[in-house]
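for the writeup, i need someone to sanity check this before i put it in the appendix. the sequnce is what the collaborator sent (i think, or maybe the updated version? ugh). structure was predicted straight from it, no edits. if anything looks off just tell me and ill rerun, i have time this weekend
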Amino acid sequence: MKKSLASLGVALMLAGCGGEHESSDRKGNEAKDRKRVGEATEAGIAAEKFSDEEIEKMADEANALLDEGKYVRANDKITEAYGAFNNRADKDEAMLVFFLKGFCKISDALKENDKAIKYAEDVLAHALSDEDRIFAYGKLGSANSRKGEYDKAIANHEKALEIGVKALGSEHNEVALSYHNIGSVCLEQGEYDTAIAYHERAVRIWLESLGSDHPRIAAAYHGTGAAYAGKGAFGRAIANYDAALEIWLEKFGSEHPDVATCYNNLGLAHDNNEDHAKAITCHEKALAIRLKALGVEHPDVATSYNNLGSAYDNSTEYDKAIANHGKALAIWLKTVGPEHPAVATTYNNGGGAYSRKGDYEKAVKYYEKCLAIELKTLGPKHPDVAITYNNLGSAYEKKGVQDKAVGYYEKCLAIELDTLDSDDPDLASSHYNVGKVYAKRKNKEKALEHLLKAKGIWFKKRGPEDPYVKNAQAIIDSLK
């Protein structure tokens, strides 16, 4: 029961409207704060006077850097241009909106959610056109989605959609972007079939309006791939990710953050599809791009280290797994703090690697740190807490500390009895774990109680020849 981190969002800046989401299985990858636009002249950035042509040139350079995925440099350049603009006596309102949208796009790309929301609200306050309002509501929805505020996200994307249909027509490519963004929120909520339907609706419009090789088509393929991955259809996920990657490589080149995102998710899909060598290659490519584009302490870099560690773990290269999880942990502790779910994820994954390496003391230490965060942030009955109880039980069982092992297995089982269907295979696994430890402790009555329940669920789901059924039956027979 391991937790990996998907990077599902892409910047989607190309026409200046709307935006997509960014998430992970364990979310919260928000970059460090940067100075707000209003602080530019206060910091003395623009003491010198610039002509309108010079200001426009700097703004164009910022946009070019943004399109190339060089977000930090784009932010520096647009801050310089805005400082020059703000130093003028006469401030054109259209140019002000242009700068606010630029800062909003950069904050969105860097996943600085609160800043993106602030800039989007400023755009709404100064909006001069329906296109400005569509842009702002799209960016609000994207930031809301990254923050886990899905109802707000849907509401804002639907406002963008309503304005777009009325002002631009139902087949306009910005209307398709709203469909795409709504699909992205549905994906975050686990509504995979609905997400696929929205992405496919966007693709149909974009194929007509933009052509088959436009980066927005790639974004829709990518979203569709993520939805198929969520359904466990990893072959179809890989096909969609490959289609997205082909377009992005052609249009953006090999060093763009969206290309890194696609490599990351391809790596996850290959890992789940048991092709761990391909997974490692994809994650290494994603990591290299992110280190160059985002710097050594960005949360997306931590995501790549975490997922690379999991791929090495699945390849039984445990020392490499532990090293990469450690790098991820160091970044997240610095950027999101010690109680963030991403930190818990990394403790969990590092604990798994230590356990499989045979270092059960360190495994227990990592799992206990994971548990402490989850209990505080998720509560005592969350499914992730059940996973950690299970992992602690496994580590203690391998250490030979059977009383603690059965105690943690029973805590896992108690949560699952409340949260899972009565015939869920995960519930069978927990009954099996409890039963086999009781068998080791020579408690025949309790061992049989749980082993028979495990066997019954697996038999119903998988039939009499299933290895799990046979394993349970073998222990049952040994107790007679």
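Residues 2 and 236 are 22 Å apart (CA to CA). DSSP finds 21 helices and no strands in the chain.
thx in advance!!
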